[in-house]
Amino acid sequence: MKRLCWLCIAATTAGAACRARSPAAPSLDANAEAFVRLGLALAERDPDSLDFYAGPPEWRATAARDQRTLEGIREQTRALAERIERGNLSLRGADRRRGEHLLRQTRALGARIDILKGARPRFDEESRLLFGTAGAPPDPARIDAVRNELDRRLPGRGSRPARYAAHQGAFLVPPSRRAAVVERALAECRRRTRDHLALPADEQLAIAWMGNTPWPAFTRYQGNSHSRLELNAALALTVDGALDIACHEGYPGHHAIAVLRDAGRVRRPRQIEFSLQLLFSPDAVRSEGLATVAADVAFDEDERARFERTDLLPLAGLSPALDVEGHVRIGRLVAELRSVQLDIARRYVDGGLEFARASADLEAEALVTAPDAFVKFVNEFRTYPVTYVAGADLVKQALGRTTGDERWERFRKLALDADDILASPR
Description:
The strands form 2 sheets. A 3-stranded mixed β-sheet has the order 2-4-3, with helices on one face. It has helices spanning 11-20, 25-45, 57-66, 70-88, 93-116, 123-131, 140-153, 160-169, 178-194, 239-250, 254-267, 282-298, 301-316, 324-335, 338-349, 355-366, 371-381, 385-399, 404-417, 419-422; strands at residues 50-53, 204-210, 217-223, 226-232, 276-278. It is 64% helix and 7% strand. The chain has a single domain, classed as Neurolysin, domain 3 (Orthogonal Bundle). The chain is globular and about 65 Å long. 47% of the residues are buried. The model is unreliable at 1-20 (pLDDT under 50). By secondary structure, the protein is mainly alpha-helical. β3 (217-223) and β4 form a beta hairpin.
Protein backbone atom coordinates (compact mmCIF):
# COMPACT_ATOMS: atom_id res chain seq x y z
CA MET A 1 0.00 0.00 0.00
CA LYS A 2 1.78 3.50 -0.76
CA ARG A 3 2.34 8.60 -1.41
CA LEU A 4 4.10 11.90 -2.53
CA CYS A 5 5.56 15.41 -2.81
CA TRP A 6 2.83 17.93 -2.15
CA LEU A 7 4.41 21.01 -3.69
CA CYS A 8 3.22 22.44 -6.99
CA ILE A 9 5.13 21.33 -10.06
CA ALA A 10 5.98 24.86 -11.13
CA ALA A 11 5.26 28.38 -10.00
CA THR A 12 3.09 29.07 -13.02
CA THR A 13 0.99 26.00 -12.32
CA ALA A 14 0.68 26.99 -8.65
CA GLY A 15 -0.47 30.47 -9.58
CA ALA A 16 -3.15 29.16 -11.89
CA ALA A 17 -4.34 26.69 -9.25
CA CYS A 18 -4.54 29.38 -6.60
CA ARG A 19 -6.52 31.71 -8.84
CA ALA A 20 -8.95 28.88 -9.61
CA ARG A 21 -9.56 27.91 -6.00
CA SER A 22 -13.00 28.46 -4.54
CA PRO A 23 -13.75 30.82 -1.62
CA ALA A 24 -14.22 27.74 0.59
CA ALA A 25 -10.72 26.41 -0.14
CA PRO A 26 -8.89 28.18 2.72
CA SER A 27 -11.07 26.65 5.45
CA LEU A 28 -10.98 23.26 3.74
CA ASP A 29 -7.21 23.52 3.48
CA ALA A 30 -6.93 24.37 7.18
CA ASN A 31 -9.09 21.40 8.15
CA ALA A 32 -7.09 19.15 5.81
CA GLU A 33 -3.84 20.23 7.44
CA ALA A 34 -5.30 19.59 10.87
CA PHE A 35 -6.37 16.11 9.78
CA VAL A 36 -2.91 15.27 8.43
CA ARG A 37 -1.20 16.49 11.60
CA LEU A 38 -3.56 14.40 13.75
CA GLY A 39 -2.90 11.35 11.59
CA LEU A 40 0.84 11.84 12.06
CA ALA A 41 0.38 12.29 15.79
CA LEU A 42 -1.51 9.01 15.97
CA ALA A 43 1.18 7.24 13.93
CA GLU A 44 3.69 8.13 16.66
CA ARG A 45 1.55 6.14 19.10
CA ASP A 46 0.29 3.50 16.65
CA PRO A 47 2.56 2.95 13.62
CA ASP A 48 0.10 0.39 12.20
CA SER A 49 -2.45 3.15 11.65
CA LEU A 50 -0.37 4.83 8.94
CA ASP A 51 -0.22 3.38 5.45
CA PHE A 52 2.05 6.12 4.14
CA TYR A 53 2.88 9.80 4.39
CA ALA A 54 4.74 11.92 1.85
CA GLY A 55 3.84 15.49 2.76
CA PRO A 56 6.02 18.15 4.37
CA PRO A 57 8.74 16.35 6.39
CA GLU A 58 8.71 19.03 9.06
CA TRP A 59 5.13 18.06 9.98
CA ARG A 60 6.28 14.55 10.81
CA ALA A 61 9.22 15.90 12.78
CA THR A 62 6.81 18.05 14.78
CA ALA A 63 4.59 15.04 15.52
CA ALA A 64 7.62 13.05 16.70
CA ARG A 65 8.72 15.90 18.95
CA ASP A 66 5.31 16.63 20.47
CA GLN A 67 4.34 13.02 21.32
CA ARG A 68 0.70 13.82 22.04
CA THR A 69 -1.33 11.43 24.19
CA LEU A 70 -4.06 9.24 22.72
CA GLU A 71 -6.62 11.09 24.82
CA GLY A 72 -5.44 14.44 23.51
CA ILE A 73 -5.45 13.26 19.89
CA ARG A 74 -8.94 11.82 20.33
CA GLU A 75 -10.31 15.06 21.75
CA GLN A 76 -8.78 17.11 18.93
CA THR A 77 -10.12 14.63 16.37
CA ARG A 78 -13.62 14.96 17.79
CA ALA A 79 -13.40 18.76 17.64
CA LEU A 80 -12.10 18.66 14.06
CA ALA A 81 -14.94 16.39 12.94
CA GLU A 82 -17.48 18.79 14.43
CA ARG A 83 -15.80 21.72 12.70
CA ILE A 84 -15.75 19.96 9.33
CA GLU A 85 -19.38 18.89 9.69
CA ARG A 86 -20.48 22.46 10.41
CA GLY A 87 -18.45 23.81 7.53
CA ASN A 88 -19.84 21.25 5.09
CA LEU A 89 -23.35 22.68 5.50
CA SER A 90 -22.42 25.71 3.41
CA LEU A 91 -20.40 23.85 0.74
CA ARG A 92 -21.53 22.78 -2.71
CA GLY A 93 -20.21 20.69 -5.58
CA ALA A 94 -16.57 19.61 -5.50
CA ASP A 95 -15.95 21.44 -2.22
CA ARG A 96 -18.83 19.55 -0.59
CA ARG A 97 -17.47 16.22 -1.82
CA ARG A 98 -14.01 17.10 -0.54
CA GLY A 99 -15.45 18.09 2.82
CA GLU A 100 -17.45 14.87 3.10
CA HIS A 101 -14.39 12.80 2.27
CA LEU A 102 -12.39 14.65 4.92
CA LEU A 103 -15.15 14.07 7.47
CA ARG A 104 -15.19 10.32 6.78
CA GLN A 105 -11.44 10.11 7.15
CA THR A 106 -11.46 12.13 10.38
CA ARG A 107 -14.21 9.99 11.91
CA ALA A 108 -12.28 6.85 11.01
CA LEU A 109 -9.23 8.29 12.73
CA GLY A 110 -11.29 8.79 15.87
CA ALA A 111 -12.71 5.27 15.68
CA ARG A 112 -9.22 3.81 15.43
CA ILE A 113 -8.21 5.66 18.59
CA ASP A 114 -11.27 4.30 20.41
CA ILE A 115 -10.25 0.76 19.44
CA LEU A 116 -6.68 1.36 20.60
CA LYS A 117 -8.11 2.53 23.91
CA GLY A 118 -10.04 -0.72 24.33
CA ALA A 119 -13.36 -0.36 22.49
CA ARG A 120 -14.44 -3.68 20.98
CA PRO A 121 -17.49 -3.21 18.75
CA ARG A 122 -18.76 -6.20 16.85
CA PHE A 123 -17.09 -6.93 13.54
CA ASP A 124 -19.60 -5.27 11.20
CA GLU A 125 -19.99 -2.20 13.41
CA GLU A 126 -16.23 -1.74 13.64
CA SER A 127 -15.92 -2.18 9.89
CA ARG A 128 -18.47 0.55 9.24
CA LEU A 129 -16.81 2.89 11.74
CA LEU A 130 -13.38 2.45 10.18
CA PHE A 131 -14.09 1.75 6.53
CA GLY A 132 -17.61 3.04 5.89
CA THR A 133 -18.79 -0.37 4.73
CA ALA A 134 -19.09 -4.01 5.79
CA GLY A 135 -18.69 -7.08 3.66
CA ALA A 136 -21.78 -8.93 2.52
CA PRO A 137 -22.21 -12.52 3.76
CA PRO A 138 -21.31 -15.30 1.32
CA ASP A 139 -23.90 -16.21 -1.31
CA PRO A 140 -24.53 -19.92 -0.54
CA ALA A 141 -25.60 -20.77 -4.08
CA ARG A 142 -22.52 -19.17 -5.63
CA ILE A 143 -20.17 -20.72 -3.08
CA ASP A 144 -21.65 -24.16 -3.77
CA ALA A 145 -21.17 -23.63 -7.50
CA VAL A 146 -17.55 -22.58 -6.99
CA ARG A 147 -16.82 -25.60 -4.82
CA ASN A 148 -18.45 -27.96 -7.32
CA GLU A 149 -16.33 -26.56 -10.14
CA LEU A 150 -13.21 -26.82 -8.00
CA ASP A 151 -14.03 -30.47 -7.29
CA ARG A 152 -14.23 -31.10 -11.03
CA ARG A 153 -11.01 -29.25 -11.85
CA LEU A 154 -8.69 -30.25 -9.01
CA PRO A 155 -6.86 -33.46 -9.94
CA GLY A 156 -6.24 -36.42 -7.68
CA ARG A 157 -8.08 -37.93 -4.74
CA GLY A 158 -8.70 -36.91 -1.17
CA SER A 159 -10.12 -33.80 0.39
CA ARG A 160 -10.53 -30.57 -1.53
CA PRO A 161 -7.86 -28.76 0.57
CA ALA A 162 -5.37 -31.62 0.07
CA ARG A 163 -5.92 -31.66 -3.70
CA TYR A 164 -5.65 -27.88 -3.87
CA ALA A 165 -2.38 -27.91 -1.91
CA ALA A 166 -0.96 -30.57 -4.26
CA HIS A 167 -2.07 -28.58 -7.30
CA GLN A 168 -0.46 -25.41 -5.98
CA GLY A 169 2.73 -27.29 -5.19
CA ALA A 170 3.24 -28.11 -8.86
CA PHE A 171 3.34 -24.38 -9.69
CA LEU A 172 5.56 -23.19 -6.82
CA VAL A 173 8.48 -21.00 -7.86
CA PRO A 174 11.79 -22.19 -6.33
CA PRO A 175 13.18 -19.60 -3.88
CA SER A 176 16.27 -19.08 -6.05
CA ARG A 177 14.07 -18.04 -8.98
CA ARG A 178 11.44 -15.92 -7.20
CA ALA A 179 13.15 -12.58 -7.78
CA ALA A 180 13.44 -13.14 -11.54
CA VAL A 181 9.79 -14.25 -11.81
CA VAL A 182 8.48 -11.30 -9.80
CA GLU A 183 10.60 -8.80 -11.74
CA ARG A 184 9.40 -10.16 -15.09
CA ALA A 185 5.78 -10.07 -13.91
CA LEU A 186 6.21 -6.47 -12.74
CA ALA A 187 7.79 -5.47 -16.05
CA GLU A 188 4.84 -6.85 -18.03
CA CYS A 189 2.28 -5.29 -15.70
CA ARG A 190 4.11 -1.97 -15.99
CA ARG A 191 4.18 -2.16 -19.78
CA ARG A 192 0.46 -2.85 -20.00
CA THR A 193 -0.36 -0.13 -17.49
CA ARG A 194 1.75 2.52 -19.21
CA ASP A 195 0.02 1.68 -22.49
CA HIS A 196 -3.24 2.95 -20.94
CA LEU A 197 -2.41 5.27 -18.03
CA ALA A 198 -0.24 8.39 -18.12
CA LEU A 199 2.44 7.74 -15.50
CA PRO A 200 5.52 9.96 -15.13
CA ALA A 201 8.61 8.81 -17.00
CA ASP A 202 10.62 8.73 -13.78
CA GLU A 203 8.17 6.66 -11.70
CA GLN A 204 9.92 3.80 -9.98
CA LEU A 205 9.07 0.79 -7.83
CA ALA A 206 11.98 -0.62 -5.82
CA ILE A 207 11.82 -4.21 -4.49
CA ALA A 208 13.09 -5.50 -1.15
CA TRP A 209 12.76 -9.04 0.26
CA MET A 210 12.02 -8.90 3.99
CA GLY A 211 11.61 -11.26 6.93
CA ASN A 212 9.15 -11.32 9.82
CA THR A 213 6.36 -9.34 8.20
CA PRO A 214 2.62 -9.94 8.77
CA TRP A 215 1.91 -9.15 5.10
CA PRO A 216 2.80 -11.28 2.06
CA ALA A 217 3.67 -7.99 0.36
CA PHE A 218 3.38 -4.29 1.15
CA THR A 219 3.94 -1.27 -1.09
CA ARG A 220 4.70 2.05 0.58
CA TYR A 221 4.53 5.19 -1.53
CA GLN A 222 7.50 7.46 -0.79
CA GLY A 223 6.66 10.49 -2.90
CA ASN A 224 7.92 11.88 -6.19
CA SER A 225 6.46 8.89 -8.08
CA HIS A 226 8.62 6.40 -6.15
CA SER A 227 7.45 3.42 -4.07
CA ARG A 228 9.08 0.57 -2.20
CA LEU A 229 7.65 -2.95 -2.48
CA GLU A 230 8.51 -5.18 0.47
CA LEU A 231 8.02 -8.90 -0.15
CA ASN A 232 7.91 -11.54 2.58
CA ALA A 233 10.99 -13.72 2.07
CA ALA A 234 9.13 -16.68 3.62
CA LEU A 235 6.35 -16.39 1.03
CA ALA A 236 5.56 -19.57 -0.94
CA LEU A 237 4.83 -18.17 -4.38
CA THR A 238 3.21 -19.78 -7.43
CA VAL A 239 3.61 -18.32 -10.91
CA ASP A 240 0.00 -17.12 -10.78
CA GLY A 241 0.57 -15.67 -7.32
CA ALA A 242 3.62 -13.79 -8.60
CA LEU A 243 1.52 -12.13 -11.28
CA ASP A 244 -1.18 -11.30 -8.74
CA ILE A 245 1.36 -9.57 -6.49
CA ALA A 246 2.88 -7.66 -9.41
CA CYS A 247 -0.53 -6.31 -10.41
CA HIS A 248 -1.85 -5.75 -6.89
CA GLU A 249 1.21 -4.07 -5.42
CA GLY A 250 2.66 -2.48 -8.52
CA TYR A 251 0.86 -1.87 -11.81
CA PRO A 252 -1.94 -0.90 -12.04
CA GLY A 253 -2.27 -1.50 -8.29
CA HIS A 254 -0.98 0.35 -5.25
CA HIS A 255 2.09 2.01 -6.76
CA ALA A 256 0.32 3.22 -9.90
CA ILE A 257 -2.74 4.34 -7.91
CA ALA A 258 -0.54 6.40 -5.55
CA VAL A 259 1.30 8.01 -8.47
CA LEU A 260 -2.02 8.95 -10.11
CA ARG A 261 -3.32 10.41 -6.85
CA ASP A 262 -0.10 12.33 -6.35
CA ALA A 263 -0.55 14.10 -9.68
CA GLY A 264 -4.34 14.31 -9.64
CA ARG A 265 -5.05 15.24 -6.03
CA VAL A 266 -2.00 16.70 -4.34
CA ARG A 267 0.21 18.41 -6.89
CA ARG A 268 -2.38 20.30 -8.91
CA PRO A 269 -5.39 20.85 -6.63
CA ARG A 270 -2.99 20.84 -3.62
CA GLN A 271 -5.31 18.80 -1.43
CA ILE A 272 -2.84 17.97 1.31
CA GLU A 273 -5.09 15.38 2.97
CA PHE A 274 -4.13 12.95 0.19
CA SER A 275 -0.47 13.14 1.21
CA LEU A 276 -1.40 10.86 4.12
CA GLN A 277 -3.26 7.59 3.91
CA LEU A 278 -4.59 5.90 7.01
CA LEU A 279 -4.61 2.13 7.01
CA PHE A 280 -7.95 1.99 8.85
CA SER A 281 -10.08 4.34 6.76
CA PRO A 282 -12.50 4.52 3.83
CA ASP A 283 -9.51 5.31 1.60
CA ALA A 284 -8.18 1.83 2.34
CA VAL A 285 -11.36 0.32 0.85
CA ARG A 286 -10.78 2.29 -2.34
CA SER A 287 -7.09 1.43 -2.47
CA GLU A 288 -7.37 -2.30 -1.67
CA GLY A 289 -10.46 -2.72 -3.83
CA LEU A 290 -8.73 -1.26 -6.87
CA ALA A 291 -5.55 -3.23 -6.22
CA THR A 292 -7.47 -6.49 -5.77
CA VAL A 293 -9.10 -6.19 -9.21
CA ALA A 294 -5.95 -4.76 -10.86
CA ALA A 295 -4.94 -8.07 -12.42
CA ASP A 296 -8.35 -8.43 -14.07
CA VAL A 297 -7.94 -4.96 -15.58
CA ALA A 298 -4.45 -5.69 -16.92
CA PHE A 299 -5.15 -9.22 -18.23
CA ASP A 300 -8.11 -11.22 -19.37
CA GLU A 301 -8.02 -14.91 -18.48
CA ASP A 302 -6.52 -16.04 -21.81
CA GLU A 303 -3.85 -13.31 -21.82
CA ARG A 304 -2.90 -14.18 -18.28
CA ALA A 305 -2.48 -17.88 -19.00
CA ARG A 306 -0.50 -17.18 -22.17
CA PHE A 307 1.94 -14.84 -20.40
CA GLU A 308 2.43 -17.26 -17.51
CA ARG A 309 3.14 -20.09 -19.96
CA THR A 310 5.52 -18.23 -22.28
CA ASP A 311 7.37 -16.08 -19.75
CA LEU A 312 6.91 -17.06 -16.12
CA LEU A 313 7.03 -20.87 -16.31
CA PRO A 314 10.45 -20.89 -18.04
CA LEU A 315 11.87 -18.36 -15.57
CA ALA A 316 10.58 -20.53 -12.71
CA GLY A 317 12.18 -23.63 -14.24
CA LEU A 318 8.82 -25.42 -14.36
CA SER A 319 7.58 -27.85 -16.97
CA PRO A 320 5.89 -26.29 -20.03
CA ALA A 321 3.49 -29.25 -19.96
CA LEU A 322 1.76 -27.93 -16.84
CA ASP A 323 -1.91 -26.97 -17.26
CA VAL A 324 -1.50 -23.20 -16.89
CA GLU A 325 -5.02 -22.49 -18.13
CA GLY A 326 -6.42 -24.73 -15.41
CA HIS A 327 -4.10 -23.09 -12.84
CA VAL A 328 -5.40 -19.63 -13.74
CA ARG A 329 -9.02 -20.75 -13.67
CA ILE A 330 -8.61 -22.46 -10.30
CA GLY A 331 -6.98 -19.31 -8.93
CA ARG A 332 -9.98 -17.23 -9.95
CA LEU A 333 -12.37 -19.70 -8.39
CA VAL A 334 -10.49 -19.73 -5.10
CA ALA A 335 -10.52 -15.92 -5.12
CA GLU A 336 -14.33 -16.12 -5.03
CA LEU A 337 -14.01 -17.80 -1.62
CA ARG A 338 -12.71 -14.56 -0.07
CA SER A 339 -16.22 -13.86 1.17
CA VAL A 340 -15.98 -17.11 3.15
CA GLN A 341 -12.63 -15.98 4.59
CA LEU A 342 -14.27 -12.74 5.65
CA ASP A 343 -17.21 -14.55 7.26
CA ILE A 344 -14.82 -16.73 9.27
CA ALA A 345 -12.88 -13.62 10.34
CA ARG A 346 -16.17 -12.03 11.40
CA ARG A 347 -17.14 -15.01 13.55
CA TYR A 348 -13.66 -15.19 15.06
CA VAL A 349 -13.57 -11.50 16.03
CA ASP A 350 -17.09 -11.71 17.43
CA GLY A 351 -16.14 -14.67 19.62
CA GLY A 352 -18.00 -17.39 17.76
CA LEU A 353 -14.80 -19.27 16.85
CA GLU A 354 -11.58 -19.85 18.75
CA PHE A 355 -8.17 -19.81 17.02
CA ALA A 356 -7.83 -23.49 16.14
CA ARG A 357 -11.38 -23.80 14.80
CA ALA A 358 -11.06 -20.58 12.75
CA SER A 359 -7.81 -21.87 11.25
CA ALA A 360 -9.33 -25.25 10.43
CA ASP A 361 -12.39 -23.65 8.81
CA LEU A 362 -10.24 -21.33 6.72
CA GLU A 363 -8.37 -24.30 5.29
CA ALA A 364 -11.43 -26.51 4.78
CA GLU A 365 -14.00 -23.96 3.63
CA ALA A 366 -11.92 -21.20 1.96
CA LEU A 367 -8.80 -23.14 0.85
CA VAL A 368 -6.45 -20.80 2.69
CA THR A 369 -3.02 -22.44 2.45
CA ALA A 370 -1.55 -20.65 5.51
CA PRO A 371 -4.59 -20.45 7.82
CA ASP A 372 -2.69 -19.85 11.08
CA ALA A 373 -0.97 -16.85 9.53
CA PHE A 374 -4.34 -15.47 8.40
CA VAL A 375 -5.82 -15.76 11.90
CA LYS A 376 -2.74 -14.08 13.38
CA PHE A 377 -3.22 -11.29 10.84
CA VAL A 378 -6.82 -10.89 12.03
CA ASN A 379 -5.60 -10.82 15.63
CA GLU A 380 -3.45 -7.81 14.77
CA PHE A 381 -5.51 -6.00 12.12
CA ARG A 382 -9.01 -7.18 13.08
CA THR A 383 -11.49 -6.04 10.40
CA TYR A 384 -8.95 -5.10 7.72
CA PRO A 385 -9.86 -8.06 5.44
CA VAL A 386 -13.07 -6.13 4.70
CA THR A 387 -11.06 -3.77 2.52
CA TYR A 388 -10.09 -6.57 0.14
CA VAL A 389 -13.50 -8.23 -0.12
CA ALA A 390 -15.98 -5.35 0.11
CA GLY A 391 -13.56 -3.07 -1.73
CA ALA A 392 -13.21 -5.48 -4.65
CA ASP A 393 -16.97 -6.02 -4.84
CA LEU A 394 -17.60 -2.28 -4.98
CA VAL A 395 -14.91 -1.69 -7.60
CA LYS A 396 -16.20 -4.52 -9.79
CA GLN A 397 -19.68 -3.05 -9.57
CA ALA A 398 -18.34 0.37 -10.58
CA LEU A 399 -16.32 -1.06 -13.48
CA GLY A 400 -19.34 -2.95 -14.74
CA ARG A 401 -18.92 -4.84 -18.01
CA THR A 402 -16.52 -2.37 -19.55
CA THR A 403 -13.56 -3.67 -21.55
CA GLY A 404 -10.42 -2.32 -23.19
CA ASP A 405 -9.71 1.40 -23.08
CA GLU A 406 -13.04 2.17 -21.44
CA ARG A 407 -12.24 -0.17 -18.54
CA TRP A 408 -8.82 1.40 -18.04
CA GLU A 409 -10.30 4.90 -18.09
CA ARG A 410 -12.92 3.99 -15.51
CA PHE A 411 -10.21 2.42 -13.35
CA ARG A 412 -8.24 5.69 -13.56
CA LYS A 413 -11.26 7.75 -12.53
CA LEU A 414 -11.95 5.44 -9.61
CA ALA A 415 -8.34 5.85 -8.46
CA LEU A 416 -8.87 9.61 -8.34
CA ASP A 417 -12.50 9.90 -7.21
CA ALA A 418 -13.38 6.58 -5.66
CA ASP A 419 -14.67 7.97 -2.38
CA ASP A 420 -17.74 9.29 -4.15
CA ILE A 421 -18.49 5.74 -5.31
CA LEU A 422 -16.98 3.43 -2.70
CA ALA A 423 -17.93 5.10 0.56
CA SER A 424 -21.21 6.55 1.71
CA PRO A 425 -21.48 9.16 4.45
CA ARG A 426 -22.30 7.87 7.93
